[in-house]
Batch of 2 targets.
Target 1
Amino acid sequence: MIALVAPLLLFLLASFVLPVLLMLSRAVTDRELQAVWPASAAALRQWDGAGPPPDALAHSVAREMVAARRAGTLNRVANRLNYDMVGSRSLLYATAERLENGAPGNTVAALARIDPRWGQRDIWAAMRHADGPLTSHYLLAALDLRFDADDRVTRVPPEQAVFGNIYLRTFKISAVVALFCVFLGYPIAYMLASLPERKANPLLILVLLPFWTSALVRTAAWAVLLQTNGVVNNALLNIGLIDTPIQLIYNRLGVYIAMTHVLLPFLILPLYGVMKGISPTAMRAASSLGASPLRAFVKVYLPQTLPGVAAGAIIVFTLALGYYVTPALVGGGADQMISASIAFYTNQSLNWGMAAALSLLLLVPLLLMLFAGRTMARTVPA
Amino acid sequence: MRVALRALGALALLAVSACDSGSDLRPLTVVGWGGSSQDAHRQAYWTGFTKSTGIALREDSWRGGVGVIRTKVVGGDASWDIVQVETEDLILGCEEGLFQRLDWASLGGRKAFLPSAAHDCGVGAMRWSYVIGYDGDRIKGPGPQSWADFWDTKRFPGKRGMRKTPKYSLEFALMADGVPADQVYPTLRTPAGVDRAFRKLDEIKPHVVWWSSISQVPDLLGSREIVMSVTSPGRLIVANRTEGRNFKLDWHGNIYAVDYWVILSNSPRRAEAAQLLRYMTRPENQVRLARFIPTGLTNVEANRIVAPALKKNTPSDPANMTDALELDANFWVEYGDQLTQRFNAWVAR
């Protein structure tokens, strides 16, 4: 048996599990400073961080700063320190240039004459936080927390705290979309399952057709429909329901509409599969025993479909958590979900540690929820 | 088993060689800012360049940000050769070695260009402004004539388009709050000034549609999603020409800057890239660009020979620049990260 699945397992391991783990490991590793400034990293680890930084450390930092600028690797340290202390980037480059032009930098006091910030604790604390090989900086930052110069965990200033809000929003939007999908998808799945196949099949194609269209295309189509002078607003104006166009796009409503539509097939299909497997005789038995149609539905049919509802809702919820294109195109600034932040740190600011930490914080609750969902699906009477 | 192994080996070799030569197989790639600006560059330069040299070109577009280039160069993705960048990205990327240093002698020397257009790593592509653009069909009579008017949602109801960056948004907010142009950057260098700019932005936030690519502006205005926008002038003028729009501009308090061409340091086609750079900066070619999109030229000789009528709607017309502000790229080099972080958090709230 194992030999049969081994090729697939190996393939998954090499092409999926390992790369994901390697990427996620960036959330807790911190090797930039260590790689570019090996001597300074060692000196930083020896310094307890309580008193003023030793001059030997300053000397090593100054030497390696100049060497790294010449080698073109200073940006790796500069960008890393900038995550912790904004302004470090320009501080490092300006200082390296002055040092190269002959300014002395063998003591902390000498560096402080180049720029007074070297005489303060923040930059040295930032370096100590980055001395590797492990770090909690990224995970803390993803929770809107940071280490201050005294190594205490503190909240980031309120005007910069952002991720807590975005996480809550991501889970809320996903839950609402899953709920909408259940309410809209259940009747459709029921209709498909109860119609004779000759009629059900063409309708099923209608469900599948958007499923085969790219989500980007469908979202762009919603943008055309929902815009201020779009099809929906014009129709509502023409039939006299509204006097002025209503805002249907670039807000939360647009996100709900477009995401529900894009994800609806993922609920209908599993639910349809489950409903097809329910024997119609059970309902007939219920009514022959005197149950009203409503009672028969609630007591006999509905419980049997719950595993399908749970499976569909979990799929929709899970997919929604990672949605990025749809909120970006039909949402406003306050409707962006966490994957937009992950994409920002991956593509725009090359801060892969932050991207990994945000992904990890999205993955953990998701895994917990999937586990809970599985347990729930098992306990539902079949 | 042995056959299978050999086949696997061959496959692996094939895969490796395919990855290896990927960058050599692709054509020379030039990256602009999309929309009508990119169209104008194609018409003015790129088609003619391919015709006269036989070098095929591939185009891409982007929305700025040195991080994108860092990802390409540091991440080992050599898919771009020549990119049009903004000033602070030029400074940062040059410092970090992301761009090649230019051979200025082959470009005709620094003196052949406006002083602001000559940099170690980049040569000016065009000189342009961010101004107020509005739809003349919807705002009849006197339009907005200052950033305070842009903020005045009572007199000019409707949504506004703004670029989703702290750069420009903070400057315009301060001007709307009554800070004179020459005091904008000194004010922004103080924490109280930054708070003041964000407070002013709070006022207009519910009325803003944030755009991330300048090429969205004509579409957002055209679909009546917004009534006015921060915009570069050329794109609206081109929309007036090609789509029969009635977009209007107001130049009061505009911020002007130069965009630069750079060659990425990991470009596998440096010689050809340098050739395209020379082609695009020669005066007789640069003059052509002004015909396809109103824009300020960077070559001194090109500025001398360009028809005066083509300077209208560009920063080269002194009448447009009476109270203009030059973008302070050094400010954004220093404060960009900090303010972007705060701005993104502010937008997402």
Note: Chain B touches chain A through 29 residues (CB under 8 Å).
Target 2
Amino acid sequence: MPDRFAAGTRVRTFPYDPPHHTRLPRYARGKPGVVVEPEERAPLADLSAQGRADAPVEQVYAVRFAARDLWGEGDHHVVLDLWESYLEEVPDER
Amino acid sequence: MSGDHSDAAIARRVRRLETLLEEKGVLTGARLDEIIDAFVTGATPANGARVVARAWTDPAYKARLLSDGTAAVRELGYMKGGYERLRVVENTENAHNVIVCTLCSCYPLFLLGPSPSWYKSEAYRSRVVRDPRAVLAEFGLHLPADTRITVWDSSAETRYMVLPRRPADTEGLSEEQLAALVTRNALIGTAAL
């Protein structure tokens, strides 16, 4: 299966607070980032953590966030490993 | 099973879990002993140091290590049969990397050994993503203002290890002597060499 997001794709994470386990930390909810690279494929932790055997196996991506977007300040970057369904592509504004 | 559990509540809980895992056929006692042995006797920062020293002395190995960390450390006998993926991130004159797991305490155990208690502390986990420059300064690592810092927060099955910069004036050293210079904190990114 081809990866949905190539390296360099601009994405945004989901903004809400799910009523179950998730691997998208609160500090990175609803934030814009850029895909660094596709990583491994893995069962979606949000469902597998509930003991469900039907958790879909998704592509996981390394996604880079600017500190300014996460915290409103700072010049560093944070990279998170995020399942594909956490992400939506951000259309190019040009 | 190892026979040296104390009677603490956590030890009783672990024993009960082991019994259940065996009863349900998830794991055999022998397999569990193998895994524990591999962790206890095989997991030490000397492994990560050996990988780093090889990368410093063999440019082709370094290129493989940075493009596919898992395959490159398997060449040296590490991570055989593991399900995790390894990504090695390189420090340079202008770029510094540091690793964390803000959600729990994920760590490349097989290359770095058991993690230090501060790595699992809420203070480190919450602060290093927010203000890494200040946290690194508290470790005694004062980076130039124009050094680009990247914090790698392991939130899935990838584990990260930092490839530190090779210290100056070490041209004459053997791979073994170089490995002896590499510290655990340098592999995490909270120290330079």
Note: The first strand of chain B starts at residue 85 and ends at 90.
